[in-house]
From TrEMBL, chains A, B:
Keywords: Transferase
Gene3D superfamilies: 3.30.420.40
EC number(s) per entry: 2.7.1.2
Gene Ontology terms for molecular function: glucokinase activity
Family that this chain belongs to: Belongs to the ROK (NagC/XylR) family.
One Pfam assignment: ROK
Protein name, entry field: Glucokinase
Length: 343, 343
């Protein structure tokens, strides 16, 4: 169990909110107070094969027990739940979700609401992470923000004047699927379509694919050693490690990834002009703590500066996220708080 | 004076709002009732050289006289004013606007407000047009919408859940400046930067430039006749006319423009998922009334379908605007109405 970014504390302010971050393998469950302090955090297996009704039971049990233990019974106002898409937000269910096939079309929101007797705010997991950073992380005290999550894929979340863009088709801010490369032979996204879309360039998968395709041009690169007997393998983490060791090919891939992100951020900023762009997810080349991560961020800023207007560049910060993998449950709780306050 | 799209009628519903659409050469001034009917419409010269204070005087005089004539004195609630950017919305002024150099840094909102004794809602002209289509045109009765205006440049406006995206740097929804072409030799926008941005491809200027660059490849095209002695000239209107006459080069340029717009719309929809995309402006290849305009729209839809997800394609309409050049003043009035209602 990872330590939550917002420390579990004895001093907390009622009312409380549950933030649930559903994933393909585990469900993160945080009980969060009104100011965003985590009262209790637990990560339990999703057990996807057992189906969503079993998950509802285990979530409900966890909530009841946790509230008894922490003395918050009767003080929890609402549940927020983020889940991977595709989803139908108004109907409160997932639609053919590749990570959770047994959950397809199951009315998860109404069932969890019935089981707990509480209202459930439902949102896309990347949007939940964005709302978490917006409430408590890198976007705190701002009115608008874009989060790009660089992981196995690329997700995104957009907040404009304190409102999350969920989208008319529950497809709001799928920033991994904006176009960055118009070349006819541009890379394809994992979903099989989406030629030239950001996810094919700035995800862990995309970076590894690009690195493999560049190996021929760099016979001396240490990345050759990462390939397995079939010529496969080689991960974005290995690209990062090689870049830290000064490998030229690895560094050029960091720079190239930064360039694609700079293009994507230009397009996103010219669309919603949020003033703040935050980069989250594990595929951050070490983030703010690492010289390669710093080079990555500088490269992104430099490409953005070249493509935008001086006043827009000056009025837009680009930085790394601070909540790590806690952003999802914290954002789900924060969104529940927001919806509880909305008449 | 063009006939307003919403006919001037004797039956109107108080209160009233002024919608002012400021342009480099003229100012459109519409007195609009609560339901969007135009009570009076006048277009007066901007007289940019005389400066903005003179414009404030003439606008104020026009308002007083019109209200006396139409019996609406005392019934006008607020003024909406759209203007070309760049601008600083919170400060209520234009910043180095290329079309209105004498207006630079002049506090137009506070001066107009002082002169008329009324509140002034200030917005970007393309955003005003978007709000007009959203209130009374192709986006009516929807919750969200994107407008792309295809004119000398490409502008845009985005409404999400009834709220206009104005942007933190007053740069919201500059959709002409999203990336569509990542090639190193991609075309440049008029502002001198912005390589590969939509405006260089889907504006009247962009289409004419592309047509000229393709002439060599099509010796039989009737577009050769449009060039002047210097090899210049050739407008997007002439490309449209030639396409109507069946000219193959002209038709291929219509198709190419559609392809770039399909790419741009994919990116915009994957960012905000509005369910509705509306195409306005004169560079519409004849729009819905014309077979070439229909082919243009079909081409856009087809490119979008290829690049997006089936449910997003199914959940998104793309159509032409219906308010023509009245969208700006109507949207400014509608936005004034909206802001008058906001506590």
């Amino acid at each position: 169990m990872p330590a939550p970014s917002s420390p579990i504390t004895q001093k907390h302010t009622p009312p409380y909110y549950w933030g649930i971050d559903i994933g393909g393998t585990s469900m993160k469950c945080g009980l969060v107070d009104h100011e965003g302090h985590t009262v209790s955090f637990e990560q339990i297996p999703t057990e996807e094969a057992a189906g969503p009704q079993a998950a509802v039971k285990r979530l409900t049990k966890l909530m009841v027990e946790t509230e008894q233990r922490t003395g918050t019974t009767g003080l929890v106002k609402r549940i927020g739940m983020g889940a991977p898409g595709p989803m139908d937000l108004p109907r409160g269910l997932l639609v053919a979700p590749p990570q959770l096939p047994t959950w397809n079309d199951f009315p998860i929101v109404s069932r969890l609401s019935e089981a707990t007797g509480r209202g459930v705010s439902f949102l896309n997991d990347a949007n939940a992470a964005a709302y978490g950073e917006f409430w408590l992380g890198s976007g705190a005290k701002q009115s608008s923000m874009i989060l790009l999550t660089l992981g196995t894929g690329v997700g995104g979340g957009i907040i404009v004047e304190n409102e999350l863009l969920n989208g008319v088709n529950s497809f709001g801010s799928e920033c991994g699927h904006i176009l960055v490369d118009s070349a006819p032979d541009a890379q394809l996204c994992g979903w099989g379509g989406g030629r030239g879309q950001l996810e094919a360039y700035a995800s862990a998968t995309g970076v590894a694919t690009i690195a493999r395709s560049r190996l021929q041009t760099a016979p001396d690169s240490q990345l050759h050693r990462c390939l397995d007997a079939e010529g496969e393998g080689l991960t974005s983490k290995q690209v990062h490690d090689a870049a830290v060791a000064g490998d030229q090919l690895a560094l050029s891939i960091v720079d190239e990834t930064a360039r694609w992100l700079g293009i994507a951020i230009t397009t996103l900023v010219h669309t919603v002009d949020p003033g703040n762009v935050v980069l989250g997810g594990a595929m951050d080349f070490g983030g703010a703590e690492c010289p390669v991560g710093k080079r990555f961020l500088d490269g992104i800023r430099s490409e953005f500066r070249e493509r935008t207007f001086p006043n827009v560049y000056a009025g837009t910060t680009i930085r790394f996220a601070t909540l790590g993998s806690d952003a999802g449950y914290l954002g789900a709780a924060g969104y529940a708080k927001k919806e509880a306050a909305t008449p």
